[in-house]
Design a protein that fits this description.
This protein is an alpha/beta fold and about 280 residues long. The protein is built from seven helices and seven strands, in the order βαβαβααβαβαββα. It has a single domain, classed as 1, 4-beta cellobiohydrolase (TIM Barrel, Alpha-Beta Barrel), CATH 3.20.20.40. A seven-stranded parallel beta sheet has the order 1-2-3-4-5-6-7.
Length: about 280
């Protein structure tokens, strides 16, 4: 797959750059843009916001991430999301209107599918049905290239992934995303992705390489020390049916209040500079 990656032309860390100048190196590479509601401050005019972003990036395209499923992060550091089914479907409709005929990569709901395995049978059924309905909206009302997030190789078996994807996917879905916001190596992710492909003949996949340059620290997922930036976004993966390596997680944004980090999603200058120093991208 060819994809016209966009490197944003505005400063996303202007409040941090003087103290953490090395962090600017991160933003010389294509980044993702996340869309989800803060329950205390619901996002307004999201449709217009997406349209402005797409216009600004043209003829390149940004990568968009949907992160607003009810009971998001099953109450952990990134808790939140839409309060009701109706609010969530309204959010998806507004997102779809913003994308329209454009064809950005859309990463659908990091961790939502694997987290469903932690829910009661009733709650899992409710979530999967909601995901299926919202994905139908996305694929019928936009030309986006949609990948459903499935977590990482240390989480679910290929058979579990296949069973869950069967319950939410549709023929217009491009495939699945691996390693969103995690640290598993590209080699490990490729191996897992190929195993899943054997069960899902029509699917393609992308891998989040934003912070996997040094691989994981055991199974620590929340701000492990000593990590590194991974491969810069590219479609040259040299692997059949792996469409791209992309940066889904914005390097330098905290995973949560753990290992000295600020709240989830807040930029953490010390970690950002550590990721840069440990990488070979500069």
């Amino acid at each position: 797959m060819e994809y016209p990656f966009w490197i944003n032309d505005f400063n996303r860390i202007k409040n941090y750059q003087d103290k953490y100048p090395l962090a600017l190196e991160i933003f010389k590479h294509p980044q993702s843009f996340w869309f989800g509601d803060n329950p205390k401050k619901p996002k307004k005019k999201m449709t217009e916001s997406i349209q402005r972003l797409l216009k600004r990036a043209h003829p390149q395209l940004p990568i968009l991430v949907i992160y607003n499923i009810p009971n998001r992060d099953v109450g952990q550091y990134s808790r939140g999301g839409a309060k009701t089914k109706e609010k969530y479907l309204e959010f998806i409709q507004n997102f779809a209107e913003g994308v329209g005929n454009s064809s950005p990569i859309i990463i659908y709901e990091p961790d939502a599918l694997p987290h469903s395995t932690l829910l009661t049978e009733e709650d899992q059924k409710w979530r999967l049905e909601l995901m299926k309905e919202s994905l139908e909206i996305l694929t019928s009302k936009t030309n986006g290239i949609v990948y459903i997030d499935i977590g990482h190789p240390a989480w679910l078996s290929p058979e579990q992934v296949n069973e869950l994807l069967d319950k939410v996917s549709n023929p217009k879905i491009r495939g699945f995303s691996i390693n969103s916001c995690n640290y598993r190596t590209t080699k490990e992710c490729l191996k897992w992705g190929r195993k899943i492909n054997k069960l899902r003949n029509g699917d393609y996949f992308v891998i989040d390489t934003s912070r996997n340059g040094n691989g994981p620290l055991n199974n620590e997922w929340c701000n492990p020390q000593g990590r590194s930036l991974g491969e810069s976004p590219t479609t040259e993966t040299r692997t059949e049916r792996c469409d791209a390596f992309i940066w889904i997680k914005i390097p330098g944004e905290s995973d949560g209040k753990c290992n000295g980090g600020p709240k989830a999603g807040k930029f953490w200058g010390e970690q950002a500079e550590e990721l840069v120093k440990n990488s070979n991208l500069i």
